[in-house]
Amino acid sequence: MTRFIVSLIIVTGIFASCKKEKNTSLPTSTFDYVGLTVDGLSNGFSYNNVAVNPVIKISFSADINHASVNQAVSLKDNEGNIILFSTSVDQDKKTLVILPATALKPFTKYILSVTNNLETQNGDKLRTSLSITLNTGIDTTDKFPVISDEELLTLVQKQTFKYFWDFAHPVSGLARERDSSGDIVTTGGSGFGIMAIVTGIHRNFITRQEGLQRMQKIVGFLKDKADRFHGAFPHWLNGSTGKKIAFSAKDDGADLVETSLLMQGLLTARQYFNRPDIAEAALRDDINSLWNEVEWSWFRKGNENVLYWHWSPNHQWEMNHPIKGWNEALITYVLAASSSTHPVPKAVYDEGWASNGAIRNGNSYFGISLPLGPPNGGPLFFSHYSFLGINPKGLTDKYANYETQNTAHSLIHYNYAKANPKGFFGYGENCWGFTASDDINGYLAHEPNNDNGVISPTAALSSFPYTPDESMKALKFFYYKLGDKIWKDYGFIDAFSLHHAWFSNSYLAIDQGPIIIMIENHRSGLLWNLFMSSPEIINGMKTLGFQSPYL
Fold first, then answer.
1. DSSP-assigned beta bridge partners for residue 33
2. Tens of pLDDT along 302-314?
3. Quick one: which of 23, 231, 259, 359 could link to 293 by a disulfide (CB 3.0–4.6 Å)?
4. Residue 168 belongs to what H/E stretch?
5. Which residues of 340-375 are buried (b: 16+ CB within 10 A; e: fewer)?
6. How confident is the model at residue 181 (pLDDT cuts 50, 70, 90)?
7. Under a CB-based contact definition with an 8 Å cutoff, are residues 192 and 163 in contact?
8. Looking at residues 444-464, what average pLDDT do you find?
9. Left if phi > 0, otherwise alpha if psi is -120 to 50, otherwise beta: which for 367?
């Protein structure tokens, strides 16, 4: 009997306890966020161009218990550092006012958090936490003393030159792929580096003898150590051993486009080192040997009327990537037609590269007619890589006027940034240019049709020959206004985004090279004049039907 009574008491207690808990439970909180302004502007939960001393006001649906603010509100920068601030409650008792204790840093991302520890005067907690992104704006003060435009151009060339001179691989002298790539050197980027060396001599950054010695190291390594496949080089080499390094799973052999960019540089150097002494004559002979051994016609893959980009001793033609325009590879067809040993006929250019005229565009973008290529022109390296040596001024064939093409391409990018259809903070007449470069999420071929808020300095700066005024605006903005963020040891960093408050910490050979080279072509035409003076190039371009003041 005793056990029954005890059990009854326990069960009765449980039901009583459950009933009591149900009756005394608190109602669901109705304490909600109502509105937000930063310096009087309302834009949801993300703000760009925020002042360094912002006034932040957050309104709620009930009176705020100010004593709960310290436990509920935090302000941190993008690296998680705590930022001190003061708070007060507005007269309506429902609006929290937040003021940073000291000025925020320009070009910095901050996160303001409000958790559900925020309470009302009655003890109700905030129903939903808040996260507010604040990107501070541009510090418009000049970061460096103002110098003349010519001095600025020279400074940019000299600082960028250091990438190819000071940071070249110590064994081969070739250009490292990027500033973190160790022994990986790039054949195409090394072609740009060779043209940078010629520019460096011309601008007195180094002596002719210093440049000659570096060229002897580079050419000797390419001739005696570097892997080649039917005369063509791989995309990447080991700068110490010369052995191929696979660029991707099946890209472990010849890369004809990278080889073309290298040969463009080598032929330019051959034309520059033209003195009759033994050393320069030997250098020219070695360059000719490399040039003549490229089997351009073999890359037709069985006499097709198109050239193929890749061939591998392990995978043969499995990459299966025909080189068709419009892109960066016009130089490949010009060199293939210019070869004295393994040339290709005009039909390969017309049917392969030009697809019998399908490369034509003819539409207008931002009121600018574009002769060739994809909508809006694609990334700007299309107008740079082949034209480091090929002079587009006065250059025509049956498909286009190439000066018109490249100028239109650059102006479309410029006007796209001014129009800023996606509303990215920072875009405008002083901040423009989209090309393949490092990106917030890795690497991306940026262009108007593939725009995520990232600007690549090489895009506008390598367009100086086409858009001198617009490019100078960009250069001055990059250097004077953003210089504390993007001007470093080897010139301008690879990419940045004011919208996302992101700045890369890297340099790429293929992006640094066009800056120094195209600025020089804008100033003196040096590299254009040298490359276009090659007798083989004159004959090859005539074969393809080009017209130019050089031909």
1. 60
2. 999 999 999 999 9
3. 231
4. none
5. eebbbeeebbbebbbeeeebbbeeebbebebbbbbe
6. confident
7. no
8. 98
9. left
